[in-house]
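Repro:
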Amino acid sequence: MSEQHTNETEAETTKNGMDRGLTNRHVQIIAIAGTIGTGLFLGAGKSIHLTGPSIVLVYIITGIFMYLMMRGIGEMLYKDPDQHTFINFITKYLGQGWGYFAGWSYWISLVLLGMAELTAIAKYVQYFIPSAPSWLIQLLFLIILCGVNIVAVAVFGEVEFWFGMIKIVAILALIATAIFMVLTGFKTPVGHASLTNIFHGFKFFPMGVDHFFMAFQMVFFAYQAIEFVGITTSETKNPRKVLPKAIHAIPSRIMFFYVGALIAIMSIFPWRQLPADQSPFVMVFKLAGVNWAAALINFVVLTAAASSLNSMLYSSGRHLYQLARETPALDRFRLNRLSRTNVPQNAIFTSAGFMVLAAILSVIPWISDSFTVITSSSSGVYIAIYALTML
């Protein structure tokens, strides 16, 4: 019996050619961190400015859709946990044509998002080292994180674990600060910390119905890449045990980390006075007396961007590897090969090679402005792929 179980475990480990090096600890933190993007740390002020307290409803509605999609992905991966990506199911159930469209579109979107994260990383590093050239920062981070991705999947999991922990601790600190300030009636330059700040002058559409619907696009961007945990399944130990835990916890994580953070911000800072162009996290910690709040939050968003780039390299590498396996014409590029550590090294390097374009664009201002428009439009591709996944 035990020998048979061992053989089954070994078969599960080697069937898809990759190592199942991600543990439950890695996957649970990746699942939490996947729902927390830089959109929350930097964009929450603008989204609150657009809709006021109604932003909580926008996050909940969008979160429900995301959860239903993740349940769908989870059901398919539970049935067949050896698939490299959830995109494979589009090919399997909707046909080869839709599969090619989704696969290549998703890979291009991941590369574009990786380029965007590289651009953001350079700006965050320049906060601490203003004289550092943007292109050099981008190349260094890309080389370091490529190294993390090609050593072994367990190394990637460990790095992503600690990146995720930094984001989680930052939000826990914000919520704990808000609870303390509300319970003590903490006086700030803008008033007293209180839950009544949320309901004072409340209007469902304070800036108009159109702004309420505009907020959905911003919130969608904040949730983008929530599906990343589904890409880790084929390299996760005991996926049928680990994956359901990660997906079932998504609603509670959305309520705690997103809704909790928004309520914390609005209870400390009256939402009508909240500037749209500043990080509310910085302002809250400054009101609490943390003078180095700007540096702290800049470090947090730097790690969040590095975490996203790390995930984009991982995900784009796996997607390109899978696409190469399905496309005989790509055989000459050896993208469908695994390294000695069972990692799709060639596919990762190729994806990273396209992301290097961000460093080139950073020295050509008029092109970088166009690039901002291109990366923003990738949200439309994401919506199409999410819709196909739901189908």
